[in-house]
Write a structure and sequence with these properties.
The chain has five helices and two strands; from the N terminus they run ααααββα. By secondary structure, the chain is mostly helical.
């Protein structure tokens, strides 16, 4: 008997085809009914302002380690409740605390986030990015 006409081979090909078709159709159906993809992390937000773009780069490289997960009680990026009372302060005060460091009831902020090589402008850009990030 030829290999291609063997019942086991035909059954194998048929099952493979049926399974592949079923799975690919199921995936298309799920995609068709899925809601539009949204940014689930505030860090996914892409600003258009040049200073905020720089701030996001600094944030991703230097600040995310703590602010994505709330290390040392740092406010998590995009969490309105954690930023609300901080946002009542003038922006220049928040920037100064980020540059000089801060120890308070809510946690601690090491000077320049522990990255001494960051310039004042880079720290300020990162702070402005965090303050401008959409919250939930």
């Amino acid at each position: 008997m030829k290999k291609f006409g063997h019942p086991i081979y035909l059954l194998s090909v048929g099952l493979t085809f049926a399974t592949t078709t079923f799975l690919s159709c199921q995936k298309e159906e799920e995609t068709a009914h899925a809601p539009a993809k949204t940014h689930h992390l505030a860090a996914d937000w892409a600003p258009s302002d040049p200073e905020l773009i720089l701030g996001k780069k600094i944030y991703d490289a230097e600040c995310a380690l703590c602010h994505d997960h709330g290390e040392e009680q740092s406010p998590k990026l995009g969490k309105e409740k954690e930023w609300a009372h901080r946002k009542t302060q003038p922006v220049d005060v928040i920037i100064k605390k980020a540059i000089d460091g801060f120890l308070g009831e809510d946690g601690e902020m090491p000077a320049r986030g522990g990255s001494d090589y960051l310039t004042d402008e880079e720290v300020a850009a990162a702070v402005k990015f965090m303050l401008a990030t959409p919250t939930h």
